[in-house]
Specification:
single chain; 2 domains; four-stranded antiparallel β-sheet; 7 helices; 14 strands; binds zinc ion
């Protein structure tokens, strides 16, 4: 269920931010600053996804937007909302994590655990949608916050639906009903040896100081340790609802990416020959990573 291993890390950007970044790319092309390979990488990453899962691109020189609909690139009107894009697009806006610190502080209040969890996930989602944090930062942040109950189950709130999910055995499932307030426990407190303060590895006695746990508490402790072990091996790095869908942009482009075989400078069609070399050789198409 991890979403990021094969995908680049993603972030939200406004059309305005994208246009400014691509104007910088266009300027670098015009003055011959980029090699064909550098240009290929930049352009290949300069693709964007809207909230309808359509992929977009922006021509770095003429600034025209295109989107990919029904298998073809078409001229598009300027998008209106935020767009998802790989973090590699050199947008000159720092990634600010201020939302993380405000979230951390506010959880120390007296909110009920479930309400606090909903609030954290919603706040983190807003931070992602506004472009303050990347998809991977969002995933790491949310996966730190789970609620545990005394049966050793883990609870979290879906990133997209806001619905409650419970981790049972090997996977997250949509929960039918929330845990009752009496069932929710502080896992770390429960599995800490009351004598030496080390984490208990066995339900019958502490392997560090040999303190024997009470016989009545052993089944509960056993459930917690089994649940913890299952969660760590199957669920700890996954979310029930991924922050972003896998990044699968179209393999082709609405324009050609070319490079000079002599000086290596990249260009974007339709110029047939290098503007910098004399005599000027014909430009050659650049092979992209996705092809
Ligand atoms: Zn101990
Ligand atoms: Zn050249």
């Amino acid at each position: 269920m991890t979403t990021t291993n094969s995908s680049p890390d993603l972030v939200m950007r406004s059309p305005d931010q994208i246009e400014r970044a691509m104007a910088d790319v266009g300027y670098s092309i015009v003055i011959g600053r980029l090699s064909g390979d550098e240009l290929g990488v930049l352009v290949e990453d300069a693709r964007f996804r809207d909230d309808l899962s359509r992929y977009w691109t922006l021509h770095p020189i003429d600034g025209a937007w295109s989107y990919y609909v029904d298998g073809v690139w078409s001229p598009a009107p300027r998008p209106t909302g935020m767009l998802e894009t790989p973090v590699t697009l050199p947008v000159m806006t720092p990634l600010i994590s201020r939302d993380e610190s405000s979230i951390e502080q506010s959880t120390s209040g007296a909110r009920a655990p479930l309400e606090a969890l909903r609030w954290i996930v919603q706040g983190t989602r807003n931070a992602y949608l506004q472009g303050s944090i990347t998809a991977e930062q969002t995933r790491m942040l949310i996966s730190q916050y789970v609620i545990t109950d005394r049966h050793g189950r883990y609870w979290t709130v879906g990133f997209r639906s806001g619905g409650l999910h419970v981790f049972s055995e090997t996977e997250w499932r949509a929960a039918q009903a929330p845990p009752s307030p009496e069932e929710i426990v502080d896992l770390i407190l429960q599995i800490t040896c009351p004598n030496c303060r080390d984490i208990l590895l066995s339900s019958s006695k502490c392997t560090h100081c040999q303190y024997e746990t009470s016989p009545e508490g052993r089944q509960g402790l056993e459930d917690l340790l089994v649940g913890l072990s299952a969660y760590l091996s199957h669920g700890a790095d996954a979310l029930p609802e991924p922050v972003a869908d896998p990044w699968r942009p179209p393999e082709n482009f609405p324009y050609m990416i070319l490079a000079c075989p002599e000086c290596g400078r990249g260009d974007i069609g339709p110029l047939p020959a290098c503007r910098f070399c004399d005599p000027s050789p014909q430009l050659q198409p650049v092979m992209l990573r996705s092809q």
